[in-house]
Amino acid sequence: MLSFIGRSVIQKAVTLFFVSVLSFLIIHLAPGEPSQVDPLNPKFTPEMVERFRKAFHLDEPLHAQYLHFYSSLLTGDLISWKDNRPVLLKIWERFLNSLPLFVVGTLITWTLSFPVGIRSAIQRGGVYDRTATFLSYLLISIPGFFFAYILIILVVSRFHVPVIGMETFGMAEAALPRMFMDRVWHLLLPSVLSASGGIAILSRYVRSQMLEVEGQDYVRTARAKGLPEEQVHYRHALRNALLPFVTMFGLILPGLIGGSVIIESIFSWPGMGRMAYEAILARDYPVILTVNFLSAVLVLAGTFVSDVLYMVVDPRIRL
Amino acid sequence: MPDPVEHAAVAEQEYQAPEAPRRTRLQEAWDRLSENRLALAGLAVFVLFFGVAVAGLVLTSGVDPVLDPAQIRLQEKLRPPLSRPHTELLTAEEAPALGVYLFGTDDLGRDVFARMLQGSWVSLTVGFVAVGISVLLGILMGGIAGYFGDRIVRTDRFLAVFLAGAGVVVMTAGSQALGIAILAGAVAWIALGSRIPRSAVLGGVSLDTLIMRFVDIMLCFPSFFLILTVVALLPASIYNIMIVIGLTSWMGAARFVRAEFLSLREQDFVTAARALGVGDWRIIFRHMIPNAVAPVLVSATIGIATAILTEAGLSFLGFGVPPPHATWGNILSDGKRFIFDAPWLTFVPGTAILIVVLSFNLFGEGLRDVLNPKLRER
Q1: Residue A71: other Cβ atoms inside 10 A
Q2: Across the interface, do A208 and B378 touch by the CB < 8 Å criterion?
Q3: Predicted local distance difference test score (pLDDT) of residue B1
Q4: Which of B220, B237, B345 to mutate to test the interface with A (most CBs of A within 10 A)?
Q5: What is the pTM of this model?
């Protein structure tokens, strides 16, 4: 166990190093210079460009820039090129905005997927199963932005509530229940949207996992010794079918960062996805690279956590 | 006179001789596919979409297209679907060829039907070219890792290639002379490398490890964000989008092909082929790839759906094909300002994307059931 942890930590550190090199190269070798982002601006004289290049080490060779960048990222004093604010602070603020979306979306996904998937597995081939299957394909296939507009039209014209942004302007003085409801309405649509794809995929996965276990000998034995169906499904089958999902707790970790660019820009939600999008438009390399780096860290941490969890939960696995 | 017992044995042998299957694999697959009505519907829509896209290319391109997607008629803006044009307000060449705005007009009075036709070709090519790139790359990488995976890449060679890469980077990044020097050194190293005695080499990494670690690295990137970054930095063009989507989505195919190759490599028919003296490449192309292609085909079909969705998302955010050209994503993106006054600008392209992507997904899943005997009963 310890040697597995040690090996995988080293391996992940090496991977992370290569990711950092690769993303740095992709950004810096792309055509165009960040200092020339606004060539039409009359205030941007050649001297200013020169000063800009000097201030952010853009006049140095690439490997020196790489060292500058990642050492200032690790010490935490990396600043954005656009507003000179610390990048980590900026990301933290936006992260706090994205967090409710992520939490509510994940809760919706996990609470809906399991009942749906289990029921379609038990009633395999029935009307319920086929409907759920078709609906989940529909949810996977619908473009997020189109679905968002359908929901906006529905909710706005039926319930007459504002949904764009994080809260209605001027709500700060309203009574507490009204303010709360306002926040809930604003939170609901984007989180339902970010959950929709997850529900479709996860419920299909639950279904196939459940079917796999239902075909095992011990389930037949349980049925043969006369246990009631309920007990067969929920005691014997479900418990074993749940094993792989423990690992998925690790895999939802990367969803923490990044958020959804499209959903956040439709709903004017000032979250991480929007910030990353704005940084890309403004060629704010420190922000882009930091978001990229952090999400790579989360992906690696996620796979690590899921490997370890799997080993803890399933005694058959010895890596 | 033959011994009767022996005679009976021969007759029995004849009786048990393997009969050639009367039905080809393709026919069997088709039979199984036709039981799955959803997958069949997916296939039908897919064929229809293909026809529409080709028709769209023919009808909307050229100097004087039959249906002009760029024709602006400001007096006819935001007309609802199926409305007749006010012919008295239009000059002869402005009048729509069909005599009716099938899907309405947008805020500049352009015919949405013509624009949808033009956009269908974009969606089709993005889907197929991007997935073509990713499948080729996936088969190449996965095939190498699976078949030649045991070969050791000597550390010094690896370092030399790394050095060559660094040379190219230095060359493009500034000091040319230094870059060329590094590159020349690396090339010389590789060329002379075989003279270095084996004992002097530090050891090495297997090719399999090398490729699969690279796959791990690629999987660390948040894909939509990476595509968005690269597309935003590169000049706007549909080809860049296809290439970038292709280059960021080959990892799944590579893993499938590697897994298949690892198990196929140990099978008897490959050993037999090798014993007969068949060359590596012939074994790979003639014996292994046909057997490994099933999961790749499925993931490619679903990959087309994903690529179409990604392109639509990029167009929606304002990246991608430059403005006068229509794509389904940018029709929807332009229409979002009129969502309550002209909902057809949202619903027509949205529904089109939904139907096409759904059909690819359903067909892909049907294909998976057909091609994977283990899942057949599930």
Answers
A1: 11
A2: yes
A3: 46
A4: B220
A5: 0.84
